[in-house]
Amino acid sequence: MDRAEWNERYTESDDLIWAEAPNRFVESECAGVTPGRALDLACGEGRNAVWLATMGWEVTAVDWSDAAVEKGRALATRRGARVDWAIADLLDYQPTDADYDLVLLSYLQIPPNDRAIIWRRAAAAVAPGGTFLLVGHHSRNLTEGWGGPRDPRVLYTPEDVVAVLDASGGFEVVRAAEVLRAVETDDESGRVAIDCLVRAVRRESR
Questions:
Q1: Tally of domains within the chain
Q2: In the chain, what percentage of residues exceed pLDDT 90?
Q3: C-beta of residue 20 within 8 angstroms of C-beta of residue 81
Q4: Which end of the chain is more exposed for a tag (fewer CB within 10 A), N or C?
Q5: 78 vs 19 pLDDT, higher one
Q6: In this structure, how many other beta carbons lie within 10 angstroms of the beta carbon of residue 4?
Q7: Confidence band of 89 (pLDDT split at 50, 70, 90)
Q8: What is the pLDDT of residues 97-112, one digit of tens each?
Q9: What CATH number is given to the structural domain containing 158?
Q10: Bridge partner residues of 135 (DSSP)
């Protein structure tokens, strides 16, 4: 989907498309991490960014959909959270290197060449001792899971992500896993989506 299509989707309803609560894996993986500066890339309606801000993080949230960011601003206001919002195409957006204690990518599903560029920039933005956290739709979700994109090009595995981190250098992979996410639907419960989760820490400088 291009920017116009995402804007159209976000404006179809005044309600949030996604839940107001943070993604369950973002919440669990960030538990116990000391708050600092966080960068949420492809933030959508801001549910993760706003949650991080309420937990004491200084958050910059970036998305190319101005409609999504507008909903994020409204959510932040309701929750009393302070977030620095930016509207930008991530292929053009260049975060400052080694400047963030947490860099988050949540369900950014784009073709391989484009996502590799963004993943490399995200990795470079992590400060020494900081955390790189990615959650996305796993390649196996296409045939064995529920929901998510139907284009196999935009799906990936933990190994794909780790390969980019290894090429970037300086990361210790804490977790690289296929994880299951229960999905409630209008007609049936018990649906399960298959997600990709990678958490890595940049080694401290010597």
A1: 1
A2: 84
A3: no
A4: C
A5: 78
A6: 9
A7: very high
A8: 999 999 999 999 999 9
A9: 3.40.50.150
A10: 106, 197
Residue 155 has pLDDT above 80, yes or no: yes
Query: Which domain range does residue 163 map to?
Result: 3-202
**Alpha carbon 46 to its chain's center:** 10
CA dihedral 110, 134, 119, 94 (to 10 degrees): 100
**What six digits make up the tokens of 58?**
């200084």
The whole-angstrom separation of Cα 75 and Cα 55 is: 15
What number is the average pLDDT over the span 49-67?
A: 97
Distance CA 89, CA 20 (A): 23
Please give the helix or strand (H or E) that residue 112 lies within, else none.
helix 112-124
Cβ neighbors of 21 (< 8 A, separation 6 or more) are 27, 47, 51
- Cα gap 200→55, rounded to integer Å: 20
Contact between 49 and 84 under an 8 Å Cβ cutoff? The reply is no
Question: Mean pLDDT, the chain, as a whole number?
Answer: 93
Task: Give the pair of three-digit tokens for residue 189.
Answer: 């419960």
Whole-prediction pTM value? 0.94
Beta strand pairing status for 171-183 and 100-106? Answer: unpaired
